[in-house]
Write a structure and sequence with these properties.
By secondary structure, the chain is α/β, with parallel strands linked by helices. It has a single domain, classed as Phosphoenolpyruvate-binding domains (TIM Barrel). Helix content is 45%, strand content 12%. Strands 1-2-3 form a 3-stranded parallel beta sheet, covered by helices on one side. Strand 1 (20-24), helix 2 (45-58) and strand 2 form a beta-alpha-beta unit. The relative contact order is 0.18.
């Protein structure tokens, strides 16, 4: 989906009373994250941030939410890549970041807390 298509999506969703949208950062064609997730490529960070910015620039309802679904863990990348993407998506204007993972990790609560602290500092 290109940024103009993202903007068009927001216009359509808002006109129908939808409260938000969740965009995932994998490339098309998207498949189930639990099936060969490591083989699925991630979108370019700058391109994905452009989609987020287009959505935020287009929205008319200040209560509409744009959620960035971060797939770094699903695709086999580590915490550093997840942080880098979360920071970029936050700066692009995402209202929330959903960090998707199929593994239960013991450091997840502390990693999420650290991510929140980093993002809160701006």
């Amino acid at each position: 989906m290109l940024a103009p298509a993202s903007a068009q999506l927001i216009t359509k969703l808002e006109s129908r009373g939808i409260a938000g949208v969740c965009l995932e950062d994998k490339l098309f064609p998207k498949t189930n994250s639990f099936i060969d997730g490591e083989l699925q490529p991630l979108a370019d960070i700058h391109e994905f941030c452009g989609k987020i910015m287009a959505c935020k620039d287009t929205q008319k309802d200040q209560d509409f939410n744009v959620v960035a679904r971060l797939e770094a863990f699903i695709t086999g990348h580590g915490l550093d890549e997840a942080y880098k993407r979360a920071d970029a998506y936050h700066k692009a204007g995402a209202d929330a970041i959903l960090c998707h993972s199929k593994k239960a990790v013991s450091h997840a609560p502390s990693a999420l807390r650290l991510t929140h602290q980093r993002l809160a500092r701006g």
